[in-house]
Protein backbone atom coordinates (compact mmCIF):
# COMPACT_ATOMS: atom_id res chain seq x y z
CA UNK A 1 0.00 0.00 0.00
CA UNK A 2 1.37 3.41 -0.98
CA UNK A 3 1.34 5.97 1.83
CA UNK A 4 2.56 9.52 2.11
CA UNK A 5 5.74 10.08 4.12
CA UNK A 6 4.84 10.99 7.72
CA UNK A 7 6.64 13.47 9.92
CA UNK A 8 8.28 11.68 12.86
CA UNK A 9 6.64 14.03 15.39
CA UNK A 10 3.22 13.98 13.80
CA UNK A 11 0.39 11.85 15.25
CA UNK A 12 0.12 8.37 13.78
CA UNK A 13 -2.43 8.01 11.01
CA UNK A 14 -5.88 7.29 12.43
CA UNK A 15 -7.59 4.42 10.63
CA UNK A 16 -11.23 4.96 9.74
CA UNK A 17 -12.90 1.95 8.16
CA UNK A 18 -15.80 2.61 5.86
CA UNK A 19 -18.06 0.49 8.08
CA UNK A 20 -17.57 -0.27 11.78
CA UNK A 21 -19.68 -1.82 14.55
CA UNK A 22 -22.60 -0.05 16.28
CA UNK A 23 -25.51 2.06 15.05
CA UNK A 24 -26.47 1.34 11.42
CA UNK A 25 -27.86 4.07 9.17
CA UNK A 26 -30.07 2.86 6.32
CA UNK A 27 -31.38 4.66 3.25
CA UNK A 28 -33.98 2.95 1.08
CA UNK A 29 -33.84 3.22 -2.69
CA UNK A 30 -30.21 4.31 -2.65
CA UNK A 31 -29.06 1.90 -5.32
CA UNK A 32 -30.11 1.70 -8.96
CA UNK A 33 -32.35 -1.31 -8.27
CA UNK A 34 -34.02 0.27 -5.23
CA UNK A 35 -32.53 -2.07 -2.60
CA UNK A 36 -31.82 -0.93 0.94
CA UNK A 37 -28.34 0.49 1.29
CA UNK A 38 -26.43 0.26 4.59
CA UNK A 39 -24.56 3.53 4.71
CA UNK A 40 -22.56 3.54 7.89
CA UNK A 41 -22.26 2.02 11.31
CA UNK A 42 -21.07 3.98 14.33
CA UNK A 43 -19.98 2.67 17.73
CA UNK A 44 -22.03 4.94 19.97
CA UNK A 45 -20.81 3.28 23.17
CA UNK A 46 -17.24 4.52 22.74
CA UNK A 47 -17.99 7.92 21.21
CA UNK A 48 -17.48 11.20 23.03
CA UNK A 49 -20.16 13.87 23.34
CA UNK A 50 -18.36 15.88 20.65
CA UNK A 51 -18.33 12.88 18.30
CA UNK A 52 -22.03 12.21 18.96
CA UNK A 53 -22.80 15.81 18.07
CA UNK A 54 -20.78 15.37 14.90
CA UNK A 55 -22.63 12.15 14.11
CA UNK A 56 -25.93 14.05 14.17
CA UNK A 57 -24.41 16.61 11.81
CA UNK A 58 -23.20 13.85 9.52
CA UNK A 59 -26.63 12.23 9.50
CA UNK A 60 -28.24 15.59 8.68
CA UNK A 61 -25.89 16.11 5.74
CA UNK A 62 -26.27 12.55 4.59
CA UNK A 63 -30.06 12.70 4.51
CA UNK A 64 -29.88 15.88 2.43
CA UNK A 65 -27.47 14.30 -0.07
CA UNK A 66 -29.49 11.07 -0.12
CA UNK A 67 -32.59 13.00 -1.10
CA UNK A 68 -30.67 14.65 -3.94
CA UNK A 69 -29.26 11.37 -5.20
CA UNK A 70 -32.71 9.75 -5.10
CA UNK A 71 -34.23 12.45 -7.33
CA UNK A 72 -34.85 11.84 -11.00
CA UNK A 73 -32.05 13.48 -12.98
CA UNK A 74 -34.42 16.03 -14.48
CA UNK A 75 -35.36 17.22 -11.00
CA UNK A 76 -31.86 17.03 -9.58
CA UNK A 77 -30.48 19.25 -12.31
CA UNK A 78 -33.46 21.53 -12.83
CA UNK A 79 -31.53 24.36 -11.22
CA UNK A 80 -28.96 24.25 -14.02
CA UNK A 81 -31.45 24.59 -16.87
CA UNK A 82 -31.88 27.97 -18.49
CA UNK A 83 -28.43 29.20 -17.49
CA UNK A 84 -28.13 32.97 -17.92
CA UNK A 85 -25.57 32.98 -20.68
CA UNK A 86 -23.08 31.08 -22.85
CA UNK A 87 -20.12 29.33 -21.29
CA UNK A 88 -16.97 31.33 -20.61
CA UNK A 89 -13.70 30.36 -19.00
CA UNK A 90 -14.02 30.53 -15.22
CA UNK A 91 -12.08 33.65 -14.13
CA UNK A 92 -10.56 32.13 -10.98
CA UNK A 93 -10.30 28.47 -12.02
CA UNK A 94 -9.65 28.26 -15.79
CA UNK A 95 -9.71 24.46 -15.76
CA UNK A 96 -13.46 24.83 -16.14
CA UNK A 97 -16.11 26.95 -17.76
CA UNK A 98 -18.84 28.83 -15.95
CA UNK A 99 -22.33 29.57 -17.20
CA UNK A 100 -22.75 32.57 -14.94
CA UNK A 101 -24.73 30.90 -12.14
CA UNK A 102 -23.45 31.50 -8.62
CA UNK A 103 -23.04 29.87 -5.24
CA UNK A 104 -24.87 31.40 -2.25
CA UNK A 105 -21.75 33.44 -1.42
CA UNK A 106 -21.91 35.09 -4.84
CA UNK A 107 -18.92 33.30 -6.40
CA UNK A 108 -19.26 31.76 -9.85
CA UNK A 109 -20.00 28.07 -10.17
CA UNK A 110 -17.83 25.86 -12.38
CA UNK A 111 -19.32 23.70 -15.15
CA UNK A 112 -17.80 20.24 -15.55
CA UNK A 113 -18.24 18.86 -19.07
CA UNK A 114 -18.31 15.18 -19.99
CA UNK A 115 -20.03 13.05 -22.61
CA UNK A 116 -20.02 10.63 -25.52
CA UNK A 117 -19.73 11.88 -29.08
CA UNK A 118 -19.93 9.89 -32.29
CA UNK A 119 -18.90 10.50 -35.91
CA UNK A 120 -22.32 10.67 -37.56
CA UNK A 121 -24.24 12.79 -35.05
CA UNK A 122 -24.53 15.68 -37.57
CA UNK A 123 -23.86 14.25 -41.04
CA UNK A 124 -25.15 10.84 -42.04
CA UNK A 125 -22.64 8.13 -42.98
CA UNK A 126 -23.20 4.79 -44.67
CA UNK A 127 -22.92 2.63 -47.76
CA UNK A 128 -26.45 3.43 -48.95
CA UNK A 129 -27.18 6.44 -51.16
CA UNK A 130 -28.35 8.51 -49.39
CA UNK A 131 -26.79 7.13 -46.22
CA UNK A 132 -29.11 5.96 -43.47
CA UNK A 133 -30.43 8.84 -41.35
CA UNK A 134 -29.06 9.16 -37.82
CA UNK A 135 -31.72 9.11 -35.08
CA UNK A 136 -30.69 12.21 -33.15
CA UNK A 137 -33.57 12.11 -30.67
CA UNK A 138 -32.61 8.56 -29.65
CA UNK A 139 -29.02 9.76 -29.27
CA UNK A 140 -30.14 12.56 -26.95
CA UNK A 141 -32.13 10.01 -24.92
CA UNK A 142 -28.96 7.92 -24.63
CA UNK A 143 -26.94 10.90 -23.42
CA UNK A 144 -29.51 11.82 -20.81
CA UNK A 145 -29.77 8.25 -19.53
CA UNK A 146 -26.03 8.34 -18.92
CA UNK A 147 -26.11 11.81 -17.32
CA UNK A 148 -23.84 13.36 -19.96
CA UNK A 149 -23.87 17.09 -20.68
CA UNK A 150 -21.53 17.61 -23.66
CA UNK A 151 -21.02 16.42 -27.24
CA UNK A 152 -18.81 17.27 -30.17
CA UNK A 153 -21.07 17.71 -33.19
CA UNK A 154 -19.11 16.26 -36.09
CA UNK A 155 -18.89 17.85 -39.49
CA UNK A 156 -17.16 16.19 -42.43
CA UNK A 157 -15.20 17.81 -45.27
CA UNK A 158 -15.54 15.17 -48.00
CA UNK A 159 -18.39 13.31 -49.71
CA UNK A 160 -17.04 9.97 -48.44
CA UNK A 161 -15.28 8.69 -45.36
CA UNK A 162 -12.91 5.75 -45.03
CA UNK A 163 -14.29 2.44 -46.36
CA UNK A 164 -16.24 0.15 -44.05
CA UNK A 165 -14.63 -3.12 -42.82
CA UNK A 166 -15.68 -4.90 -46.03
CA UNK A 167 -14.01 -2.24 -48.19
CA UNK A 168 -17.28 -0.68 -49.37
CA UNK A 169 -17.38 3.07 -49.89
CA UNK A 170 -19.20 5.01 -47.19
CA UNK A 171 -21.02 8.14 -48.29
CA UNK A 172 -21.46 11.31 -46.25
CA UNK A 173 -24.33 13.83 -46.43
CA UNK A 174 -25.26 16.62 -46.16
CA UNK A 175 -22.27 18.97 -46.69
CA UNK A 176 -22.36 22.77 -46.24
CA UNK A 177 -22.26 23.73 -49.92
CA UNK A 178 -24.98 23.25 -52.52
CA UNK A 179 -24.52 20.76 -55.37
CA UNK A 180 -25.98 22.66 -58.29
CA UNK A 181 -23.83 21.74 -61.28
CA UNK A 182 -23.47 22.21 -64.15
CA UNK A 183 -21.24 19.24 -64.66
CA UNK A 184 -20.48 16.16 -62.64
CA UNK A 185 -18.01 15.90 -59.77
CA UNK A 186 -15.66 12.92 -59.36
CA UNK A 187 -18.38 10.97 -57.54
CA UNK A 188 -20.75 11.34 -60.50
CA UNK A 189 -23.07 13.82 -58.80
CA UNK A 190 -23.52 17.55 -59.57
CA UNK A 191 -20.53 19.76 -58.81
CA UNK A 192 -20.55 22.09 -55.81
CA UNK A 193 -21.18 25.81 -56.11
CA UNK A 194 -18.97 27.25 -53.37
CA UNK A 195 -20.88 30.55 -53.45
CA UNK A 196 -24.10 28.83 -52.34
CA UNK A 197 -24.83 27.06 -49.10
CA UNK A 198 -26.88 23.91 -48.66
CA UNK A 199 -29.95 24.89 -46.56
CA UNK A 200 -30.42 21.30 -45.38
CA UNK A 201 -27.02 21.33 -43.65
CA UNK A 202 -27.60 24.54 -41.71
CA UNK A 203 -31.20 23.72 -40.85
CA UNK A 204 -30.01 20.42 -39.41
CA UNK A 205 -27.16 22.14 -37.56
CA UNK A 206 -29.47 24.59 -35.83
CA UNK A 207 -32.19 22.03 -35.12
CA UNK A 208 -29.78 19.63 -33.45
CA UNK A 209 -27.93 22.22 -31.40
CA UNK A 210 -31.24 23.65 -30.20
CA UNK A 211 -32.63 20.18 -29.41
CA UNK A 212 -29.52 19.39 -27.35
CA UNK A 213 -29.89 22.69 -25.51
CA UNK A 214 -33.42 21.81 -24.48
CA UNK A 215 -31.91 18.74 -22.78
CA UNK A 216 -29.26 20.89 -21.00
CA UNK A 217 -26.49 19.55 -23.25
CA UNK A 218 -23.60 21.67 -24.46
CA UNK A 219 -22.55 21.25 -28.10
CA UNK A 220 -19.14 21.89 -29.61
CA UNK A 221 -19.83 22.73 -33.24
CA UNK A 222 -16.98 21.36 -35.34
CA UNK A 223 -16.20 23.80 -38.14
CA UNK A 224 -13.82 21.63 -40.21
CA UNK A 225 -12.61 18.02 -40.21
CA UNK A 226 -8.91 17.30 -40.70
CA UNK A 227 -8.36 13.61 -39.96
CA UNK A 228 -9.61 12.59 -43.41
CA UNK A 229 -7.02 14.63 -45.30
CA UNK A 230 -4.10 14.20 -42.92
CA UNK A 231 -4.45 10.56 -41.82
CA UNK A 232 -7.35 8.55 -43.18
CA UNK A 233 -6.61 9.74 -46.72
CA UNK A 234 -3.39 7.71 -46.85
CA UNK A 235 -4.86 4.39 -45.80
CA UNK A 236 -5.19 1.46 -48.20
CA UNK A 237 -7.10 0.19 -50.08
CA UNK A 238 -8.21 3.59 -51.42
CA UNK A 239 -5.59 6.28 -50.68
CA UNK A 240 -6.57 9.78 -51.68
CA UNK A 241 -10.31 9.33 -51.09
CA UNK A 242 -10.64 12.42 -48.87
CA UNK A 243 -9.05 14.77 -51.41
CA UNK A 244 -10.89 13.31 -54.41
CA UNK A 245 -14.17 13.81 -52.55
CA UNK A 246 -13.44 17.31 -51.26
CA UNK A 247 -15.50 20.27 -52.57
CA UNK A 248 -12.27 22.27 -52.99
CA UNK A 249 -10.85 19.73 -55.46
CA UNK A 250 -10.81 21.39 -58.91
CA UNK A 251 -12.93 18.61 -60.42
CA UNK A 252 -15.64 18.96 -57.77
CA UNK A 253 -16.74 22.61 -58.00
CA UNK A 254 -17.93 25.04 -60.66
CA UNK A 255 -15.94 27.97 -59.26
CA UNK A 256 -12.46 27.03 -60.47
CA UNK A 257 -11.27 26.52 -56.89
CA UNK A 258 -8.23 24.29 -56.37
CA UNK A 259 -6.89 24.16 -52.83
CA UNK A 260 -3.69 22.62 -54.21
CA UNK A 261 -2.07 19.32 -53.37
CA UNK A 262 1.07 18.32 -51.54
CA UNK A 263 4.03 16.61 -53.19
CA UNK A 264 2.42 13.15 -53.33
CA UNK A 265 -0.82 14.42 -54.83
CA UNK A 266 -2.99 12.88 -52.12
CA UNK A 267 -3.78 15.72 -49.75
CA UNK A 268 -5.22 19.13 -50.55
CA UNK A 269 -3.76 22.09 -48.70
CA UNK A 270 -7.22 23.03 -47.54
CA UNK A 271 -6.49 23.89 -43.92
CA UNK A 272 -3.71 26.41 -44.45
CA UNK A 273 -3.29 30.06 -45.42
CA UNK A 274 -1.70 29.12 -48.76
CA UNK A 275 -4.68 30.18 -50.87
CA UNK A 276 -6.44 33.49 -50.04
CA UNK A 277 -9.42 32.65 -52.27
CA UNK A 278 -9.99 29.40 -50.39
CA UNK A 279 -9.64 31.26 -47.10
CA UNK A 280 -12.25 33.80 -48.20
CA UNK A 281 -14.70 30.94 -48.88
CA UNK A 282 -13.89 29.43 -45.48
CA UNK A 283 -14.41 32.78 -43.73
CA UNK A 284 -17.84 33.14 -45.35
CA UNK A 285 -18.72 29.64 -44.20
CA UNK A 286 -17.58 30.37 -40.62
CA UNK A 287 -19.81 33.44 -40.52
CA UNK A 288 -22.73 31.37 -41.82
CA UNK A 289 -22.29 28.84 -39.01
CA UNK A 290 -22.18 31.64 -36.44
CA UNK A 291 -25.28 33.28 -37.91
CA UNK A 292 -27.03 29.93 -37.59
CA UNK A 293 -26.36 29.25 -33.89
CA UNK A 294 -25.11 32.46 -32.26
CA UNK A 295 -28.30 33.09 -30.29
CA UNK A 296 -28.07 29.66 -28.57
CA UNK A 297 -26.44 29.49 -25.15
CA UNK A 298 -25.23 25.88 -25.32
CA UNK A 299 -22.70 26.45 -28.14
CA UNK A 300 -18.94 26.03 -28.27
CA UNK A 301 -16.84 25.94 -31.44
CA UNK A 302 -14.04 23.59 -32.46
CA UNK A 303 -11.71 24.76 -35.22
CA UNK A 304 -11.01 21.36 -36.73
CA UNK A 305 -10.73 17.73 -35.76
CA UNK A 306 -7.06 16.71 -35.87
CA UNK A 307 -5.81 18.95 -38.62
CA UNK A 308 -4.93 22.46 -39.66
CA UNK A 309 -1.63 24.26 -39.83
CA UNK A 310 -0.85 26.45 -36.85
CA UNK A 311 -1.29 29.82 -38.57
CA UNK A 312 -4.60 28.67 -40.10
CA UNK A 313 -5.90 27.27 -36.78
CA UNK A 314 -5.24 30.57 -35.07
CA UNK A 315 -6.78 32.46 -37.99
CA UNK A 316 -10.00 30.44 -37.63
CA UNK A 317 -10.13 31.16 -33.88
CA UNK A 318 -9.77 34.87 -34.59
CA UNK A 319 -12.39 34.71 -37.33
CA UNK A 320 -14.90 33.35 -34.82
CA UNK A 321 -13.94 35.75 -32.03
CA UNK A 322 -13.95 38.80 -34.29
CA UNK A 323 -17.28 38.03 -35.92
CA UNK A 324 -18.97 37.14 -32.64
CA UNK A 325 -17.96 40.54 -31.24
CA UNK A 326 -20.56 41.95 -33.63
CA UNK A 327 -23.18 39.50 -32.35
CA UNK A 328 -25.32 39.37 -29.20
CA UNK A 329 -23.43 36.40 -27.73
CA UNK A 330 -19.86 35.14 -27.59
CA UNK A 331 -18.94 31.46 -27.25
CA UNK A 332 -15.73 29.55 -26.47
CA UNK A 333 -13.52 28.37 -29.33
CA UNK A 334 -11.15 25.38 -29.08
CA UNK A 335 -8.28 23.63 -30.84
CA UNK A 336 -7.88 19.86 -30.64
CA UNK A 337 -4.71 17.79 -30.49
CA UNK A 338 -3.30 15.29 -32.98
CA UNK A 339 -3.23 17.96 -35.69
CA UNK A 340 -0.33 20.13 -36.84
CA UNK A 341 -0.03 21.71 -33.39
CA UNK A 342 1.39 20.37 -30.15
CA UNK A 343 0.19 21.41 -26.71
CA UNK A 344 2.60 24.34 -26.22
CA UNK A 345 1.37 25.90 -29.44
CA UNK A 346 -2.29 25.36 -28.57
CA UNK A 347 -1.79 26.92 -25.14
CA UNK A 348 -0.17 29.96 -26.74
CA UNK A 349 -3.04 30.31 -29.22
CA UNK A 350 -6.06 32.64 -28.89
CA UNK A 351 -8.30 29.59 -28.27
CA UNK A 352 -10.36 29.33 -25.07
CA UNK A 353 -10.07 25.57 -24.70
CA UNK A 354 -7.79 22.81 -25.95
CA UNK A 355 -7.87 19.06 -26.27
CA UNK A 356 -4.41 17.60 -25.59
CA UNK A 357 -3.46 14.28 -27.15
CA UNK A 358 -1.38 11.25 -26.32
CA UNK A 359 1.59 12.75 -28.16
CA UNK A 360 1.49 15.55 -25.57
CA UNK A 361 1.66 13.06 -22.70
CA UNK A 362 -2.07 12.87 -21.99
CA UNK A 363 -2.83 9.18 -22.30
CA UNK A 364 -4.13 6.75 -19.70
CA UNK A 365 -2.67 8.65 -16.73
CA UNK A 366 -3.15 12.34 -17.58
CA UNK A 367 -0.96 14.81 -15.65
CA UNK A 368 -2.55 17.43 -13.42
CA UNK A 369 -3.85 20.38 -15.43
CA UNK A 370 -2.60 23.77 -14.27
CA UNK A 371 -2.96 25.77 -17.47
CA UNK A 372 -4.99 28.87 -18.29
CA UNK A 373 -7.27 27.18 -20.82
CA UNK A 374 -9.94 24.55 -20.27
CA UNK A 375 -8.85 20.97 -21.06
CA UNK A 376 -11.41 18.79 -22.85
CA UNK A 377 -9.54 15.50 -22.66
CA UNK A 378 -10.80 13.23 -25.43
CA UNK A 379 -10.19 9.57 -26.18
CA UNK A 380 -10.43 10.51 -29.86
CA UNK A 381 -6.96 12.03 -29.58
CA UNK A 382 -5.22 9.02 -28.05
CA UNK A 383 -6.27 9.14 -24.41
CA UNK A 384 -7.14 5.79 -22.84
CA UNK A 385 -10.83 5.06 -22.56
CA UNK A 386 -11.63 3.16 -19.38
CA UNK A 387 -13.32 3.78 -16.03
CA UNK A 388 -10.07 4.63 -14.23
CA UNK A 389 -9.20 7.20 -16.91
CA UNK A 390 -12.50 9.01 -16.36
CA UNK A 391 -11.82 9.44 -12.65
CA UNK A 392 -8.15 10.27 -13.08
CA UNK A 393 -9.18 12.99 -15.52
CA UNK A 394 -11.67 14.52 -13.09
CA UNK A 395 -9.24 14.39 -10.17
CA UNK A 396 -6.53 16.09 -12.23
CA UNK A 397 -8.61 18.98 -13.47
CA UNK A 398 -9.72 17.78 -16.91
CA UNK A 399 -13.13 17.40 -18.56
CA UNK A 400 -13.22 13.83 -20.04
CA UNK A 401 -14.85 13.09 -23.40
CA UNK A 402 -15.38 9.68 -25.01
CA UNK A 403 -15.21 8.85 -28.72
CA UNK A 404 -18.14 6.45 -28.65
CA UNK A 405 -19.06 3.91 -31.33
CA UNK A 406 -22.61 4.36 -29.97
CA UNK A 407 -24.84 2.22 -32.22
CA UNK A 408 -22.05 0.52 -34.19
CA UNK A 409 -23.08 2.09 -37.51
CA UNK A 410 -19.60 3.57 -38.12
CA UNK A 411 -17.33 1.48 -35.88
CA UNK A 412 -17.92 -1.69 -33.82
CA UNK A 413 -19.07 -1.14 -30.25
CA UNK A 414 -16.43 -2.29 -27.75
CA UNK A 415 -17.03 -3.92 -24.38
CA UNK A 416 -15.42 -0.93 -22.64
CA UNK A 417 -18.04 1.52 -23.94
CA UNK A 418 -20.83 0.95 -21.43
CA UNK A 419 -18.67 1.14 -18.27
CA UNK A 420 -17.03 4.34 -19.53
CA UNK A 421 -20.40 5.89 -20.34
CA UNK A 422 -21.67 5.16 -16.84
CA UNK A 423 -18.48 6.37 -15.19
CA UNK A 424 -18.68 9.73 -16.97
CA UNK A 425 -22.22 10.20 -15.70
CA UNK A 426 -21.23 9.26 -12.16
CA UNK A 427 -18.26 11.63 -12.32
CA UNK A 428 -20.51 14.48 -13.37
CA UNK A 429 -22.93 13.75 -10.54
CA UNK A 430 -20.12 13.98 -8.01
CA UNK A 431 -18.49 17.00 -9.69
CA UNK A 432 -21.77 18.87 -9.31
CA UNK A 433 -21.97 18.05 -5.61
CA UNK A 434 -18.60 19.49 -4.70
CA UNK A 435 -17.60 23.16 -4.81
CA UNK A 436 -15.63 22.52 -7.97
CA UNK A 437 -14.73 26.13 -8.70
CA UNK A 438 -12.66 26.29 -5.49
CA UNK A 439 -10.83 22.98 -6.06
CA UNK A 440 -7.51 22.36 -7.80
CA UNK A 441 -5.36 19.25 -8.40
CA UNK A 442 -3.28 18.61 -5.25
CA UNK A 443 -1.65 15.23 -5.86
CA UNK A 444 0.72 15.58 -2.89
CA UNK A 445 -2.18 15.53 -0.41
CA UNK A 446 -3.07 11.88 -1.13
CA UNK A 447 -0.88 8.79 -1.15
CA UNK A 448 -2.57 7.71 -4.40
CA UNK A 449 -1.57 11.05 -6.03
CA UNK A 450 -5.11 11.64 -7.34
CA UNK A 451 -6.58 14.49 -5.34
CA UNK A 452 -8.70 17.50 -6.16
CA UNK A 453 -8.91 19.80 -3.16
CA UNK A 454 -9.70 23.09 -1.54
CA UNK A 455 -7.29 22.39 1.35
CA UNK A 456 -8.88 22.62 4.74
CA UNK A 457 -12.39 22.64 3.33
CA UNK A 458 -12.96 19.91 0.78
CA UNK A 459 -11.09 16.95 -0.75
CA UNK A 460 -11.92 14.51 -3.54
CA UNK A 461 -9.59 11.50 -3.85
CA UNK A 462 -9.37 8.57 -6.25
CA UNK A 463 -8.02 5.17 -5.21
CA UNK A 464 -7.42 3.28 -8.49
CA UNK A 465 -6.64 0.06 -6.64
CA UNK A 466 -9.04 0.56 -3.74
CA UNK A 467 -7.83 -0.33 -0.27
CA UNK A 468 -6.39 2.44 1.86
CA UNK A 469 -5.29 6.02 1.27
CA UNK A 470 -3.30 8.30 3.54
CA UNK A 471 -4.46 11.91 3.41
CA UNK A 472 -2.52 14.97 4.48
CA UNK A 473 -5.20 16.89 6.37
CA UNK A 474 -2.80 19.22 8.15
CA UNK A 475 -4.53 22.18 6.49
CA UNK A 476 -7.89 21.28 8.05
CA UNK A 477 -9.08 22.11 11.55
CA UNK A 478 -11.87 20.26 13.32
CA UNK A 479 -13.81 17.39 11.87
CA UNK A 480 -14.51 16.54 8.21
CA UNK A 481 -17.53 14.61 6.94
CA UNK A 482 -16.35 11.51 5.05
CA UNK A 483 -18.15 9.71 2.26
CA UNK A 484 -17.11 6.93 -0.11
CA UNK A 485 -18.36 6.74 -3.68
CA UNK A 486 -18.28 3.68 -5.90
CA UNK A 487 -16.98 4.92 -9.28
CA UNK A 488 -18.55 2.02 -11.20
CA UNK A 489 -22.03 1.95 -9.70
CA UNK A 490 -22.40 5.51 -8.42
CA UNK A 491 -23.43 4.27 -4.98
CA UNK A 492 -22.40 6.48 -2.01
CA UNK A 493 -21.47 5.15 1.44
CA UNK A 494 -21.37 7.37 4.51
CA UNK A 495 -18.13 6.98 6.50
CA UNK A 496 -18.66 9.14 9.57
CA UNK A 497 -16.06 11.79 10.29
CA UNK A 498 -12.32 12.23 10.27
CA UNK A 499 -10.36 14.78 12.29
CA UNK A 500 -8.13 17.23 10.49
CA UNK A 501 -4.79 18.63 11.57
CA UNK A 502 -2.57 15.67 10.63
CA UNK A 503 -2.17 12.75 8.26
CA UNK A 504 -5.01 10.25 8.41
CA UNK A 505 -5.53 6.86 6.78
CA UNK A 506 -8.91 5.76 5.48
CA UNK A 507 -9.93 2.44 3.98
CA UNK A 508 -12.61 1.93 1.34
CA UNK A 509 -15.56 -0.19 2.54
CA UNK A 510 -15.85 -2.12 -0.75
CA UNK A 511 -13.60 -3.93 -3.19
CA UNK A 512 -12.17 -2.32 -6.31
CA UNK A 513 -11.39 1.29 -7.09
CA UNK A 514 -13.00 3.96 -4.95
CA UNK A 515 -13.53 7.69 -4.59
CA UNK A 516 -13.39 9.48 -1.24
CA UNK A 517 -15.05 12.82 -0.49
CA UNK A 518 -14.12 14.81 2.62
CA UNK A 519 -15.80 18.09 3.47
CA UNK A 520 -15.81 20.46 6.42
CA UNK A 521 -19.37 21.08 7.67
CA UNK A 522 -20.66 24.53 6.87
CA UNK A 523 -21.95 27.26 9.13
CA UNK A 524 -24.02 26.20 12.09
CA UNK A 525 -23.47 22.51 11.46
CA UNK A 526 -19.88 22.74 12.72
CA UNK A 527 -19.71 21.06 16.17
Textual characterization of the structure:
The chain is α/β, with parallel strands linked by helices and 527 residues long. 23% of the residues lie in helices and 24% in strands. The protein is built from eleven helices and 26 strands. An eight-stranded parallel β-sheet has the order 6-18-17-16-15-14-13-8. Strand 4 (88-89) and strand 5 form a beta hairpin. The protein is elongated, with a radius of gyration of 26 Å. The two termini are 33 Å apart. The model is unreliable at 1-48 and 50-83 (pLDDT under 50).
Set out the fold topology.
Layout: E1 15-17, E2 23-27, E3 37-42, H1 49-70, H2 73-76, E4 88-89, E5 97-98, E6 115-117, E7 124-126, H3 136-145, E8 150-153, E9 160-161, E10 170-173, E11 177-184, E12 190-197, H4 199-214, E13 218-225, H5 227-230, H6 241-244, H7 276-293, E14 299-305, H8 310-324, E15 333-336, H9 343-348, E16 353-355, E17 374-378, H10 387-395, E18 399-403, H11 417-431, E19 440-441, E20 451-454, E21 458-463, E22 468-472, E23 479-485, E24 492-499, E25 503-507, E26 514-519
Helix pairs in contact: 4-7, 7-8, 10-11
Amino acid sequence: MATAKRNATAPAPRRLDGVSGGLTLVRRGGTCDGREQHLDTVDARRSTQRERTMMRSVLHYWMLWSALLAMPLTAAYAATSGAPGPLRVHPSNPRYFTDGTKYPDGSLKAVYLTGSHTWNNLVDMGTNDPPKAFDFDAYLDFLQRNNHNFIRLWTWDSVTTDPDPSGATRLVAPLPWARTGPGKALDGKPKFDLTKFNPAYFERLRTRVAAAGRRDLYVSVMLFEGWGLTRGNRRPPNPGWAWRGHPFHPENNINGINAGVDADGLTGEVHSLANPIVNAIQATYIRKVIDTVNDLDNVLYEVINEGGQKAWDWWVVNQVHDYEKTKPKQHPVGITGHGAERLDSMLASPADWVSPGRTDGYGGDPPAWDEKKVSLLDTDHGAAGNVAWVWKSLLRGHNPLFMDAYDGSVSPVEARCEPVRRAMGHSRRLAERVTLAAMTPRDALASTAYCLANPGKEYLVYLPNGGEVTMDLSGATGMLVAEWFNPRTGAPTNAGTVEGGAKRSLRAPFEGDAVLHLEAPKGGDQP
